[in-house]
Amino acid sequence: MTDQQRRFVSTNRRVREDRRFVAGAGRYVADLDMPGTLHVALVASTAPAARILGIDASEALAMEGVVDVLTGEELSAAVTPLMNGLDTPLVRRFPLAVGQIRYAGEWVAAVVAESRALAEDAAEKVRVRTEALPFVIDAEAALEPDATPVHPEHGSNLLLDRTFDWGPVAEDFAAAEERLSLRVTWGRNSTVPIETFGVIARWNPWEEMLDVWASIQMPKYADQIARALKLPGNAVRVHYDVDVGGSYGVKRGIKHTVLVAYLARKLGRPVRLIEDRLENMRAGDAQGPERIFDIDVAFDRDGTVRSMKMRALDNAGAYAGRAPFQLGKPIGAIVGPYRIGSVQYRAMSVTTNKAVQEAVRGFGQAPTNYAIETMMDRVAAHLGIDRLELRRRNLIRAEEFPYTIPSGSTYDSGDYHTVIDKVLAHADYEALKAERDRLRAEGLCAGIGIAACLEPSGGNSSFEPLLNEKNRTSTWMEGSRVTIDALGFVTVAIHTTSSGQGHETLAATVVGEELGIDPDRIRVTRPDSLSSLPGNSPVGSRMAIMLGGAAARAARNLKRQLVAIGAHAMGIDPDTASYEAGTITAPDGRSIGWDELVDIGHRRFHDLPSGTNPGLTASFIQQVPTGVALPKDGKVQMYPCYSFEFHLVLMAFDPVLAKPEIRRYVIGHDCGTVINPHIVRGMTLGGIAHGIGAALLEEFTYDEGGQLMTQSFLDYLMPSSHEVPSVEIVHHCTPSPLTEFGQKGSGESGYLGAPAAISGAVQDALSPWGVTVDKLPLRMSTISDTIADAETAA
Amino acid sequence: MKPAQFDYARPKTVEEACGILAADMDARVLAGGQTLVPMLAMRLSRPSVLVDITRIAGLQGIACSDDTVEIGAVTRQAAALASEVIRAEVPLLAKALRHVGHPPTRCRGTVGGSVAHGDPSAEIPLAVTVLGAEIVFVGEDGEEERFAPEDFFIGPMLTTAPMGGLLTRLVFPRRAAAPTGTGFREVASRRSDYAFASAGAQVVLNADGTCAEARLGIGSVGDTPVAVDISGLSGTRLTAQDIRGAVVEALSDLETVDDLHATASYRKRAAVRLAELALAEARDDALEQAG
User: Fold this and answer.
1) Is B199 at the interface with chain A, CB within 8 A?
2) Is the CB of B263 less than 8 angstroms away from the CB of A701?
3) Which domains, from first to last, does chain B contain?
4) Cβ of A657 under 8 Å from any chain B Cβ?
């Protein structure tokens, strides 16, 4: 299908969800008003590590309006441990600390009361007697043989230590003319949505049904709840018709959910927990990767990068969860957009006494891209080759696709050189360099940053079997159903919550495209989990591909029924009939219209072709394109589709004040066929803002005493409209051969390359002093001190 | 983030407010609430009673006399920023106000509230300090008590505000008739964050273009905003070298500490840089007026 033939896909149609959000008419979990609801507040640990000697809740329980105080001891006896991705069965995690506290802020007890304010008052009255234990905050310290294990039963802090050798690494290093080593550090940032996590659970003993409403973005949520509470799968009903106020990966409140679900069953009333900002920041278990990269790179004097050894040491925090998998996903793009022939990758994950790490936009890809791109800058500097030229010499060329990288993934398509050419032409790269030099002559620090990187998309979960042999997952399907009602109106069902990705617009657009019907006339619904087709939620930059594919193909199945009905009515072979905007036309020009087709489908069984079901409905369950094989020899096809982005940034700052100012930001973006341009633009701009935060501002910082210093937006610094510049987006489209319309993923764009580009720009600005920066976030004070130290030394 | 329990009082007169404050050590004044309300929500402040002074007649407004401009304590920062009188007669305060929070917080935040809170990185206390404005309290007995800034700000969020007294107004000197230039600079992580360092400056020129009077204050770096003696600039032409020499000498013994977001050495260098920039801005402003 070419662009010219498309009526709705890629056109500038408004995003249907925006109307209710802009009008303030979204329906979030905190908006739900259920009679008789009880409220939860948490008793948080003040110590980073301690043995719990006793919990005295008598004073709290004596207060009027206080209904219950739940401890980890009671809860852990009733529920199974929360899901653990790796095969580390002795790293057990429950919603409340059991016996031992493992990070400051960890929930020790839950207070249930008639109002949230009362619950908070009572939480202050719960007395927790503890005995302090040694703790460890730093990932490298946690690796030391004498380090205290966060989980003594597990025996050490090491959760994962896997080394992969892909290709002739030793030979390539031996043959290379040059090599260098570098270390870069990615600070512990995250996505911090304005809406914190919230959940309401209600137990109906007469139906034996647990109903759950939550601000959730998580695969297998209902399954995990049922398993933890030892309920049948069909006794848990998650309501997906709840708006989610932002997530970008982190809205995975399984511990919150198990907690309130247990309480709802125990107390016989709806129970709700809406995190406040303090609970969210220190114990929402929603902080992101924190990673030290040690890289050796082997290359030739002409700039050819032959091989790379990368060790990634990740600080998972106090429990395992899915955090270690964030070291696995980047294996699918471990060489970035470059032809690097062999790679050694050592993935290490350790526990420390910090809050638990959760999935964050890109699932580990943004830190890895930062490491790869910094490496490319260093190689260029070492050889005295222009950074752009070095990249050009190593980029995979358009004619080389599909291109299989050493770790086993095949990149579907791309045209990296053309995207870069378009960005350079748009930005007038020579003029940009002249502008940088003019700013320098004015006495400012000025630098240009570049980053070229990939967004693997279409999320399968191949890192699970790769890093845990007991896990045999080879599908990560998504389903959709399309129905034409007896009045002839079309409804599409999607089976997940959305946190701003515009899935209603996506589904309506592709179904409208297939059926030739105006998408604005198509209804999109979200059945609850028990009425849903199988799916895996909007993670891994997958929904344009997976939900888009499922909805389009469900619509195509339905269209096939319409064609069969129409052909039968006209007495012709269905293969000779044509479908156009709801009308079936025979080769001789006769036609049969929508109303007639609907009438036959819904009322006239006698007019249906034999073997056709009455009623007009069809569904499709989409398997991830390429996602069928289990790993072999440490290699696997990770995500199927690869979007590309190229960032070009000009920054300037005063050498003393060092407040980085972005003077120009241009991004070239190729996510294949764009289904809705407004949505892709929004994701890209939001991702860049997020990346600016990661590069310059945002960090969950712990002090030497193990206390979180950044517990609110006072100290956890999110970029505001003042810090985010206007961004110029240069589009390019290399369709994916693997998807319905050629679409690829876009939900992580911007964030994946912005930190690398900004760091590169600061590095370029500091080049006159011969100093390097190698840690994110790059604080103003650090930049200024680095310059001052260099001047003192000189 | 629900406040601990408190009582709420909304007195109609200063006298009534002072009565409540004097009777209860744990009573706190609520003006714009832009600092206090978040502190209540985090239970960092647990007053017994909040005394809402925003409905007291006579605490709002800006009035100009022969020598002074008086600003009622409950005057919203946004109103002060929009005031022609302040722009014309207290131009340094007008410049400082632009850096206070952001538009939504300025619509609620009050001029007096910021001074009473005494945050060393706040812009209004810095302008008060540079200009030597008077801080006027009314006590329980109805008597006025006036404070000079250096006697009022004594530590971070620590002032000599009298027990049972209510800050009612600020009295700023009107600018001189001679060319009077001002400059205000600060640096922070983000536009509306607490500044790492800030500098306010005002210079008055003689008819021959030399400096008649120079004032400088530094905020955010020490425990309080500090007025810095740069009288050595008087008589000079305020060249870049003049300014640099005076600033470096005046700020040589500035004391400060590291925190999460900035090192002490950074704050000190930034203070010097901002002081230079603020004085240069003030000089250029004054020269423009001189024609």
Assistant:
1) no
2) no
3) 7-52 (3.30.43.10), 62-173 (3.30.465.10), 180-290 (3.30.390.50)
4) yes
